[in-house]
Structure formats: structure tokens, C-alpha cells
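Action item from last week, closing it out:
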Amino acid sequence: MAASLSIRVVFMPEVSHLEFLSGPVRFVKGIGPRRADVLSEAGVDTVRDLLQYYPRKYLDRTSVSAIKDVSSDSGPVTIIGTILTLKVIPGRRGRRFELVIEDEPGRRITCVWFKGVAWVSKVFEKDQLVAFHGRPQKYSGGISLPHPDFDVLDEEAPALATGRIIALYPGGASLSRVGLTSRSFRRTLFHLIKEHGERLQEVLPEGIQGKYNLLDGRVALRAVHFPKNEKELIRAIARLKFEELFFIQLMLARMKRDQTVEEGVVLETKDGLASRFIHDVLPFELTGSQTEAITDITRDTASGTRMNRLLQGDVGSGKTVVAVAAMLHAVDNGLQAVFMAPTEILAEQHFRNLLTYFEPLGVRVRLLLGGMKKSERSAILESLSSGDLPIVVGTHAIIQKDVSFKGLGMCIVDEQHRFGVMQRATLFKKGDRPHTLLMTATPIPRSLALTVYGDLDVSIMRDQPPGRQPIRTRLVWDRDRDSATEILRSECINGRQAYVVYPLVEESEKLDLKDAENGYEKLVAEFPDMTVDLIHGRMSSEQKESAMKKFVDGETQILVSTTVIEVGVDVSNATVMMIEHAERFGLSQLHQLRGRVGRGPHRSTCILIAHFKRSSEADERLRTMVETNDGFKISEVDLKLRGAGDFFGTRQSGLPDLKIADIVADTEILIQAREAAFELVAKDPNLDDPGNESLGAYFRAFYGREVMNLSRVG
């Protein structure tokens, strides 16, 4: 009974193909202005968007059951029969619509609707042949199909839900209100493909199709909506996933090539400040990862092209040392360097660390923040513009319009994902094509790195500096918190320090969470013989700086905080991290908080205080924290739990959203798509060789804007 749907392949002019795909969805038969407005809210504006509105799942309706074999234990069934009777029946709870069908003499079943009676009662006529799909239930002493899906089987209306694998589409209240159900999507897409399928063109070159054994793109687009069988559906989905990931990788390959040919100032390796820093100032030898990263940087900056490198390393792996070497390398070559951090606390922490490194070398470094005194700020700006100040550390204050450099040669951006694309671009424009080192302490899963940062060169740091001991992580239920408090007390009595982190600043009436201010007051009462202090994001810069300085100097034993200390804070004497309501934190956030301890020679402990009322995802996060300290393993779990779109804000990366591929589940396809894209760009960077014309035109039409948006900033 399944309707036949094929695409007649006709090679039409390229413009017709692209104009058809770019056409407004409102002109598609079955859509119209009202439905188009609702579809636009779901990201469907063009014919291409509608064709790529992929099903969320499928139902196999290839088998038809006889009515005599149907029972309330049958599960979902498809039956076909002729309508014998149909009527609207009034009742105390409202009207219902019933019809009776028969497939063999005397073999009958009732279909019943309690909702949508006014509409459904007008759909059917006596003696029609209809296919119904539903779950049988006991009803009025017999068996019925309540609210079944259906196909009226006549010559004019194709059977779109009978005898085939059928697609179910993403829905929602707004779509349902204008009649955009899976049934209407199937009907609309059926007619769209049947009437206009000849306009579609294959966009992938024959060589790529053959090498990766890909189904024809036009067949795949039909089959993903109307598969002939399971085998064809599997091949269609694989082809469309490859295509989606291929075009993203093509964007990244083009960007990477543009960066490779972009000239940059040549930095020569000299026996100067960078060398003295490594051999004379550092109190320890570099790890293998640090040495490799510095080698990558010196090679990049000596190549004559602008460096655009991502330095990713686990918590405490020593990325700051690499950044210092990179900045001194620029200063050795007569240029300036800037170190930009996302928060004032982190900027101040870096500034204090850099002072200890730079003072023995006689290198000046200043801290530039938003709330500084005007006279102090003016002095720093004058020193930067004249070239007298070689290195500056700061926050967003560095990218203000009145900040200028005489010769900016090296930009370091810490926790770079916390800055917007335009913010990073503004910083890089402060110099003449300065070399760029982006840093993150959030280990990035390979699949995500190949996608979000696929245009960058990457250095990965896994080693820990010598003398670091692994951090013990304990999960403690709130009712057993006395054992956790004893650990905190014991460490502080022995001269160590502790963090206690809360998810909120003030008490919330909506969320039953312990807050930092109340927690601070309780800890002051509980530890009267110790100094307890409080720090959170709502405090002024002066208050935060004062609180951190007292903790760094050892004047404070217990620092109560919100997540403002999540990244970068480095106090080697701190050995306890207690996290209240740990079930409320994300996995990456928990790992970053844990990384604030274990930064010295002393054995450290992270205590997760959790409550029994929690989700299964929270359970997995807590279990993962206890089982491993490896940030890269943790990042893989985090990506699976949160999804690629939410992993530290990658929706803001500038890349198009994935509609069918999943970079967690489809890593193998991603690697193949990346290989194909980068090989193609290496051979034909402008996509204009014979055989690549359709691909080039499609890419420029639908991905050119994204390439421009991504710019050169990673």
C-alpha cells in the first residue's frame, strides 16, 4: 500500500537548484504564511531548511495485521479495512466519534476519538478503505483503537503511514496549533519531493562519494523522510551526517588555510629573557608537555605566518609557564605582549604570579582593570602607547578604544571560551597581525576540538608539574557532614587552608540551597578560633582583591566563596575544597573547583557535599568525580551528559547548528569528513576546479556567511 516516491534526476542550471533551496518556505504547498511564521521560530525559513527538518525517530509499519489477530496485548498494530458505520455520540463528559471497520466478513474493530471530534468526524465516509495505526485497548466489552493515526487509501491520496517505515518529526505546542503534525509534515514533504525533486543536485564530488561509499545525496534526502527499507534508511542517515559534518570541516579548512597564508612577524629564537626564565628563574624543570608546547610556539612564530594556536591542558598542568615563555619570546624580539583573563580575580592572580617571574629579569608588567583610578590608568596607557611597558595583564579593560600599543606582537587569552568572538577580534586588532595563543583549562574532547577549534593548531598538556600529588575526592551526604567538617578542621589546625564553595550568594526562596552568606556566618560560629572570610561576584573589586590577598598571604584559614574562584586561583597551601550542594554543579565546574587545591606538595582533599534529592545525571557527575582526576576523561563524560551545544557555550562558537549529526556519537564520521574536507581544500582551495563547481556554489550560498562571521579569531 505504500506510496511510490522517487526523484527524477535532471541536470538543471545551477542557479535553479540554489534558488529553489533558498526559496521561502511559505510558498511550499501545504505551508502558507501562518505556518511559515511558526516554522521560522523553529529555524525553518527556506525550502532547504524544510528538507533538512529531519525526523526525530521512525516507526516500522511495514507489517499489516488481520483484525482477527488483534488483542489488547498486541502492542502497536497496523490494520486495513472498510468503514461500515461512523457516528458522533454525545456523553456527559463530552462527545466522542466512533467508526467501525471490517477487513473480512464479521471481523470488525472500533476506532474511537474523544478529542478533535469536530475535525475527525468530517474526514471519513462510509465504504472508504482506510489504514489505521494504534495500540489496541479494551473498550465497551470489545477491542478498540483510541485516537489512531490513519491513511485514507484511495488513488489520489498516497498512503504515507501504511506499509512503510514512517517518520515522526520534532513537534511542539506552537506547531500543533497550526496543524503541523508528523502527519502533515509527511504529506507536505511527500509532495515537495515528488513535484520538485528534479531540482535537487548532488553537491559532493564523485571522488568523495566513491572513497567513502556514500549514498547519492538526492536519494538520501528522499530516503531520510520516506525510506524504502531499514538498510536504505541507515545509509541515508550516514550520508547526511557526513555531508553536514563535511561542510563544517570545509569551513574550518578554508579558515585554517587563510590563517596559514596570513603573514606574521618573524620572532627569532634568542639567548635572552625567555631562555633565562626557563633556566634561571623557574625553580623546577619543565614537564615534557610544557617543553613541547614552547617548541610549537617558537616554531610557529618563526615561520613567517601568524600563529593561531590553542593551548589546552588539564587543571594545574602549568599553562601559565608556557604563556610567560611566549610573552618573553616576543619581548626578546622588541615587541609587546598582552595577557587577557575573563575575571578580575583571575587577572590579579596571574599578575601576582607574573611579578614573581618577571622581577628577577627586570621586565616591567602592569595590571589594567576597569575600576582603576584615572591617573593610574592614564599612566599605563601612556606606557603602552610609547612602548615603555612591554607586558600588560588585564580583563576586558584591555580592549577599550583608548588602549593602544606601539608594537603588540603576542596575545595570550586565558579561558578564551569566556570571551565573545568580537571581543577576541578587538584585542587582536590592537596590533599588526600579532601572534595568538588561546588557553583553556577545560580539557576539550577530541570530537569537539575537531569541530569547534578545527581551524586552530592545538598543543595539549597532560603532564603535571613534579611534586604534585593526586587529589582525593570524597562524596559525603549532607546528613553525614560531620566527617567532612573534621577533615577541614584537621587540615586548618595543621597549618593548611580550605575553600568552602556554595552555589548561591544569597538565600533563595525558590531553591532550597545553602548560600554563601549564610554559610559564612555558620562557619564563623563553628570555627571561632580560625579566620573565616567571604568572597563572591557581587563584591567590589577592592573587596575581592583584599579577601584574596589575605587568603594568599595565609591570614585567612577558610575562604567561603561562590564559583568566582573556579579558575586560575593558585594558593599552594590550600588543601581542602568543600563544595556544598555538589549535585547542583556541572561536571566541568566541579573539576575546575577541585583544581584549586593540590597545587603544592601537600596531600589535598576535595569533599563533595550532596543531597539525596538529585537526578540520575547528577549521580553520574558525582560518581565520575570520585572515580577519576583525569580532566580529559571527565570532559568526555561531560560532553555526553550535556551535549555539544551546551559544552561551555559552543552555541556561541559561530558554527552552524547540527541538525542530524552528533559529534559525540558520530566521531568516526566526523574524522572521515574532516579528512575529505582538508584534502579537498589542499588541492582546490577556491573550490573552482572541474568537478567541484556545484560544491563551490552550494558552499558559497549557504556557508559563506558563517565563514565571514567566524573571521580569524578561532
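Closing note: The chain has five domains: 1-59+167-201, 63-162, 205-261+663-714, 273-461, 472-628.
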